[in-house]
Design the sequence.
């Protein structure tokens, strides 16, 4: 049996039936990583001995008949999530030697459920980027074609899952960082509602936009992970005290009419948008037809402030980043430049040597937009536009259950193609930013392939706390297209 | 909106960053381009729109003030690049006269 092909749900069943052990499963994934990750470069940190020790502990628990949902299941963690005793660098040189003394809440839940942390996955520095080329260490390659980017910022997580190095990973999404790499790598990525999952221990980039969610190869696996990570946490005051449903109930009754009663909105502003690749449009049209065939009603809706989303987002996110990243000053943790002779010089040298170009660029934009004389015109205005964008979404969800759109305007682009042109890179985020601005959940599921064989995803967004509709519709698309059985050849 | 090298330098100082001359030139150009793009927000009518600072419809969160165990200085200082006893060690805060 090729253990690396197992989904999380399959692995769970085989572990429970004692047909495989976690050591066998973990060992086989580690072998596969050793054989291929020199090329893909999806992992930033790997500790095989530690992973196998976690697997053995899980095997003992399973043998003792104690059931926990993730016992013995290996997963990867994006390097932005704090892991106690395990290096956490956030893709940044400034945290090169940082070893957290506590676990992020999602990591803690995973460990308590006896999951096996394989390692930490590569990313754009602090989550700032759409290609993983902004990693302070090395770029990750797209497993479908190594000349192309895997997307970002969770490019390492998406590439690892697509490469079958693990069945799933926990990642984060501030403006599309789960959904866009999932689309570019042909896997499933779910960004939950803001507040659905605790952000405690997620190293903050833009606190009003950040959210943790799963990247997996099937919608069912993403739902299983949601069951683990969702819920209120006293350590995150923005986490919601809302009942958490069993997200797998969204999968229950798949048949050819399973979306009957669901209304799918197509935002008028997304149709005929310039710069959208014809292959992306074809995949989008096909998905619309699939949803219709499954019984959904398709309606056109309007999101009138779509043209302003990128501008408002790229003011708000850098403003929050400039404030959040002030904590990296060479005093409490991480790298410190040693040649400075007074405190201010030490701060400046540490930060200039420790942060990469894009992070410094965003800190400068944010500091500028928040500075006296510019605050009202930039941050103030963007926060008002954000209110209008939120209104657009709540109006749209008055008339439909989910919104359908592309994930990105093009399939994955070539490594190096956009790295020196920040604005062009920002504009590629047009379809994903809104979900973070409005705080609504979004999912990316595989929808097809480009003419040159690169995966293209489909995005769906739902009203706040309605991840179940996304699971339901995503499962419908997955079952109809069966794309989750196609993998890249490494 | 054109950003001058002097402005970049001022902002960099506020953000505690040091930008070398070569990066300054390309940063001026990139920032001017990005801010030009942001200027499209000027066309949005936001009269009477209340700004939002987040996506959660938040309430104030209160809790009992209970005593919890503290991680202690060893754990807190474990990642410090420089420390002495239970303190973080930093370079001189006040410049030496004449320097």
Sequence:
């Amino acid at each position: 049996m090729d253990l690396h092909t197992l989904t999380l749900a399959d692995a769970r069943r085989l572990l429970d039936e004692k047909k495989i052990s976690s050591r066998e499963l973990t060992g086989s994934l580690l072998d596969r990583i050793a054989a291929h990750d020199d090329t893909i470069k999806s992992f930033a940190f790997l500790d095989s001995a530690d992973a196998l020790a976690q697997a053995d502990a899980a095997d003992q628990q399973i043998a003792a008949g104690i059931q926990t949902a993730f016992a013995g299941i290996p997963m990867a963690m994006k390097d932005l999530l704090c892991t106690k005793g395990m290096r956490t660098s956030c893709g940044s040189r400034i945290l090169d030697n940082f070893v957290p003394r506590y676990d992020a809440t999602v990591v803690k839940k995973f460990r308590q459920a006896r999951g096996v942390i394989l390692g930490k996955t590569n990313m754009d520095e602090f989550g700032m980027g759409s290609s993983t080329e902004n990693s302070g260490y090395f770029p990750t390659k797209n497993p479908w074609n190594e000349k192309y980017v895997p997307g970002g910022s969770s490019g390492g997580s998406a590439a690892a899952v697509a490469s079958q190095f693990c069945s799933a990973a926990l990642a984060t999404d501030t403006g599309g960082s789960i959904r866009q790499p999932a689309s570019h790598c042909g896997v499933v990525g779910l960004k939950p509602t803001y507040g659905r999952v605790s952000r405690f221990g997620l190293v903050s980039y833009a606190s009003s936009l950040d959210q943790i969610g799963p990247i997996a190869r099937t919608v069912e696996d993403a739902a299983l992970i949601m069951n683990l990570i969702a819920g209120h946490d006293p350590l995150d005051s923005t986490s919601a005290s809302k009942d958490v449903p069993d997200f797998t109930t969204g999968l229950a009754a798949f048949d050819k009419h399973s979306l009957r009663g669901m209304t799918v909105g197509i935002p008028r502003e997304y149709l005929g948008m310039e710069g959208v690749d014809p292959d992306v449009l074809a995949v989008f049209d096909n998905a619309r037809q699939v949803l219709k065939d499954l019984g959904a009603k398709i309606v056109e809706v309007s999101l009138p402030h779509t043209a302003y989303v990128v501008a408002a987002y790229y003011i708000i996110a850098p403003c929050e980043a400039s404030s959040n990243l002030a904590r990296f000053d060479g005093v409490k943790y991480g790298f410190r430049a040693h040649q400075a002779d007074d405190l201010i010089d030490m701060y400046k040298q540490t930060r200039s040597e420790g942060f990469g170009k894009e992070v410094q660029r965003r800190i400068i934009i944010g500091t500028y937009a928040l500075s006296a004389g510019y605050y009202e015109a930039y941050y103030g205005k963007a926060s008002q536009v954000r209110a209008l964008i939120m209104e657009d979404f709540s109006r749209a969800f008055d008339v439909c259950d989910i919104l359908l759109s592309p994930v990105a305007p093009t399939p994955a682009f070539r490594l190096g193609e956009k790295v020196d042109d920040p604005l062009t890179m920002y504009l590629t985020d047009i379809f994903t930013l809104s979900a973070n601005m409005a705080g609504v959940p979004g999912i990316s599921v595989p929808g097809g392939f480009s003419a040159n064989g690169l995966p293209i995803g489909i995005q769906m967004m739902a009203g706040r706390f309605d991840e179940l509709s996304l699971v339901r519709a995503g499962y419908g698309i997955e079952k109809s297209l069966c794309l989750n059985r196609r993998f890249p050849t490494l | 909106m054109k950003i001058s090298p002097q402005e970049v330098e001022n902002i960099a100082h506020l953000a505690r960053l040091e930008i070398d001359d070569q990066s300054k030139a390309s940063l001026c150009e990139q920032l001017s381009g990005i801010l030009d793009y942001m200027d499209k927000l000027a066309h949005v009518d936001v009269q009477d729109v209340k700004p939002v600072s987040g996506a959660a419809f938040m309430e104030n969160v209160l809790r009992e003030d209970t005593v919890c165990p503290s991680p202690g200085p060893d754990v807190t200082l474990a990642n410090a690049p420089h420390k002495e006893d239970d303190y973080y060690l930093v370079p001189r805060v006040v410049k030496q006269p004449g320097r």
Q: What stands out?
A: The first strand of chain B starts at residue 83 and ends at 84. Chain B touches chain A through 53 residues (CB under 8 Å).
